[in-house]
Amino acid sequence: MVMKIFRNFFKRIFSGMFKSKEDIRLGFYGPPNAGKTSLTNRICRDWTGEEIGSVSKVPHETRTVQFKEKVEIEYKGKKMTFKMIDTPGISTKIDYEDFLKFKINKKEAKNRAKEATQGVIESIKWLDDMDMVVIVLDATENPYNQVNITIIGNLIARKIPVLIVANKIDKKKADIKKIEAAFPEYDVVGISAKYGENLEEFYESVFKVSKKI
Amino acid sequence: MVKKNKKKVSHIKGFAIQFLPYSDIRDLNGDERIRKILGIILGNNILILQGKLKPEEESRLIGDTMAMIAHVKEFKGIELAVIDGEEEEGFFSKMKKGLVNALSGGDLGAITIIGPASVVKDIKRNPKKIELLLNQ
After folding, report:
1. Which of B56, B66, B124 has its CB closest to that of A120?
2. Across the interface, do A118 and B66 touch by the CB < 8 Å criterion?
3. Phi, psi (5° rounding) for residue A74?
4. What angle, rounded to 10 degrees, do the helices at B55-71 and A106-126 form?
5. Which residues of A touch B89 (CB under 8 A)?
6. Which chain B residues are closer than 8 Å to A153 by Cβ?
7. pLDDT of res. A127
8. Dihedral sign, CA of B26, B30, B32, B33?
9. Coil, helix or strand for A75?
């Protein structure tokens, strides 16, 4: 027992020493179509000039985990380097017929559904490898969704710091207060990834939450 | 008009609601719990589970559900919702609840609803009410 405590103590000290030299692994999680890729694209474009992936109105556009290394963000004279990790949206159901509404043919829709299921599995596996996570929620949707609660529960269990982003605040139906009421213990930042609204406050929160790593 | 009503009734016949007391899964490990739950769901049942799963079991359930969509014909996934007991609690009630949970092995003040997506279209959850919307 005493040995275990000592081992954990030294492990924490040493991992802390080396972690500070590595890029912070910043994951973007959330349900499909919340705007995870739009936000990571916006950040990567602002600080590296390159995007991370394609965006679409069709759900499950991101079906594999996407990375961008060495993204250096500067806020009020301070600099931090991140490894951006954009994950496929997590959902509890995937029906290929839902894709047919977007004028995708049956074969392609079935293939997309298959890849999307694998993407969800991959997203869940990656939870163990994050230093910090931004949960991107669509501010026009009901936040009391079990997927959101499951993701947050898993991050708490792994002691990974969390920042919640209420995206799409440019839309009339957006309701940040509802998201704040659903997750009162977390910092919630309202943004529009599409139009780049309120990103200063987002970066400020990223720097603030990163202190908990 | 009469014909329409008959059609709706015939659809409702296609599923059952099954209650699973926590005592039935208390002694099972994570894998066995998920297998048992998915077995009930694949039988086209809506499951009402006393208590709730651990966060890592919930994510495992989602992962296994995804794997099954790819392998089980007509299976489109699940709808899932957990209703917790009291939202705001004081220190002593939290401590009491923690003690009860430790003795029973799970949070018995919660209820978990899981249904196959082919039967349950959506579970709309607000803090004070829950709506189960079924597929027509």
Report:
1. B66
2. yes
3. -115, 130
4. 150
5. none
6. 55, 58
7. 97
8. positive
9. strand
Q: What is the model's pLDDT at position A8?
A: 63
3-class secondary structure, A11: helix
Mean pLDDT of chain A: 92
Q: What is the ipTM of this complex?
A: 0.88
Is residue A168 within 8 A of residue A138, CB to CB? The reply is yes
Alpha-carbon dihedral A151, A152, A158, A159, rounded to 10 degrees: 160
Q: Which amino acid appears at position A27 of this protein?
A: G
Give B2 to chain A, closest Cα distance, Å.
Answer: 31
Q: Which of residues 51-80 of A touch B (CB under 8 A)?
A: none
In the block, which residue shows the tokens 């609840």? B97
| Domain chopping of chain A, boundaries | 22-210
Residue A31 — pLDDT band, cuts 50, 70, 90?
very high
Q: Are the beta carbons of A144 and B117 separated by less than 8 Å?
A: no
Tokens of B16: 């059952």
CATH says A22-210 is which class? alpha beta
CA-to-CA dists, residue B19 to B34, B80, B92, B115, angstroms: 15, 15, 31, 12
Residue B47 has pLDDT above 80, yes or no: yes
Task: Determine which of B38, B41, B57, B69 to mutate to test the interface with A (most A C-beta atoms within 10 Å).
Answer: B69
